[in-house]
Amino acid sequence: MSELAIEIAATAARLVVEEGLSFGQAKHRAVKALGLPGRTALPDNDEVEAQVQEYIALFCGDTQPGELLALREHALLWMRRLQAFRPHLTGAVWHGWATRLSDIDLALFCDDAKSAEIALINQNQRYEVRTVAGMHGKDVDVLSLHSFCPGLEEDIGVHLRIYDLDDLRGALQPDAQGRAPRGDIHALERLLGVA
């Protein structure tokens, strides 16, 4: 990786940790912050993630483990609430570099796409719906809500990506680093030592 790519990745990592930005947002802001042309080649997400982990180790080593634990415990609560939809945790909370500014990202694998919305309505949950690119490049609905996290004593974002049940096949294929990109309830319980 070039020195410029490392500098962009390091700046993006700081923005991810300190401001809770997504990798994409952080990379574009890093390019602006460094005064680089808009067409500057961006580092890939693995490079940014490596810099995020390094930044956390240097500047957040005393607080981040407790924040990650609180987020994982809260994710488990939501996964149990939505167990009928085969929830899988993904993103920063699953991969272990989440801080109190990180949201919880869950993938739900549903027989009927509207059933998760009905479940939220039945639980008196207010949510917003938007469409984003899913794991196979096709658009999926995301149900976003705020939920009070007792371990952090504040509201956090919980995002539920709605997939068809058939999408579960292949959803656990290892990423480029050989890691599972998401984990089910049992995998998260093992991480938390409650299995």
Show the helix and strand layout:
Layout: H1 3-19, H2 23-33, H3 45-59, H4 64-81, E1 88-90, H5 91-95, E2 104-110, H6 115-122, E3 128-133, E4 139-149, E5 154-164, E6 182-183, H7 185-192
Helix pairs in contact: 1-2, 1-3, 4-7
Kindly describe this structure.
With 195 residues, this protein is α+β, with helices and mostly antiparallel strands. It has two domains: 3-59, no CATH class; 64-192, Beta Polymerase, domain 2 (2-Layer Sandwich), CATH 3.30.460. 42% of the residues lie in helices and 21% in strands. It has seven helices and six strands; from the N terminus they run H-H-H-H-E-H-E-H-E-E-E-E-H. It has helices at residues 3-19, 23-33, 45-59, 64-81, 91-95, 115-122, 185-192, and strands spanning 88-90, 104-110, 128-133, 139-149, 154-164, 182-183. It has a six-stranded mixed β-sheet. Strand 4 (139-149) and strand 5 (154-164) form a beta hairpin. Helix 1 crosses helix 3. The longest helix is centred in the middle third of the chain and has 18 residues, at 64-81. The radius of gyration is 17 Å and the shape is globular. The model has no long low-confidence stretch (mean pLDDT 94). This is Polymerase nucleotidyl transferase domain-containing protein. It comes from Limnohabitans radicicola. InterPro entries: NT_sf.
- Beta strands, count: 6
Count structural domains.
2
Measure the end-to-end span.
Answer: 40 Å
β-sheet strand percentage: 15-25%
Q: What gyration radius follows from the Cα positions, in whole Å? A: 17 Å
Shape: globular
Number of helices in the DSSP assignment = 7
Low-confidence spans = none
Helix content: 40-55%
